[in-house]
Design a protein that fits this description.
alpha/beta, Rossmann fold, 2 domains, 7-stranded parallel β-sheet, two-stranded antiparallel sheet, 34% helix
Length: 305
Amino acid sequence: MRKLILPFICCLLLFVVYFTFVRDSNSNSTIVPENASWPFSTIDYASINKLNKTTIRVAIIDTGIDSSKVCTNDVHLASYSVENINKNPNDLHGSIMANIICNSSFLDRKDNSLRKKLELDGINVGHDDDISIDALVEGIQKAIDLNVDIINISLGVYKNNTSLERIIKTALQKNIIVVCSAGNDSTKQSMYPASYKGVITVTSVDPNNNYMLNNNFNNNIIVSAPGENIPTQISKDGKKLEINGTSASAALISSAIISFMSIDPKIKETDLIELFDKTSKRIGPENIYGFGLLDYKKALLSLYS
């Protein structure tokens, strides 16, 4: 009989947690399951009703953002460029990343309260086909100077660089969370800054939770997220753009981390890595999928426990 007591207590505690946070609509920390569409349907999406009042600032280090193509009016937007980099209207990558981040279902609230607390800083470090290490370093330094909470870098280089490694370490030491795409070149070769310790490196899966054939694969990957036919609100030639690849997956994880930070403003990259390790759905080898596919609801429950 005694052997049955501990399992019974554990089940009872799980029952209480579920009904307190997932089912009780009057709770101060309510999670309301919804019938989410792709890509949120595959990661066990749930919405959060009440949050902290902390403003969250995110730097998108990319090809700049076009404010007319990005977000709702509730999101504060600012644009910067590193020295000698001019915005090219044909460079859509940065705007697409910003669009995915601020329009994701992770930020959905009836009163739009989370988007009202979100500040996006687009830092232009180059063009869709031309990013230099020096410009990338300068862009990260700009993000640090702006005292952001999260840096999204959906790009990278295949050459390690001491200045780049040093500036990433500086960002992490200042408790800035750095999210990077793993890359889309079907190679084991390390991409930077995605391969630096402490970075949240993100890879892609399709709707069947299979890795996408262009994914890079190595032991630096932390977590997987949807990366095929990710919808955006940006139109081109009269059609809404969809994007494939680890860039989109990284932007989705950055958006998820915004919601995590709205629950726990002091969350650090070490906490996030532990959270992904503890809650992600194991779907294959770690050098391909990291700890596995983001399980959003399980991560939320872990944060509330």
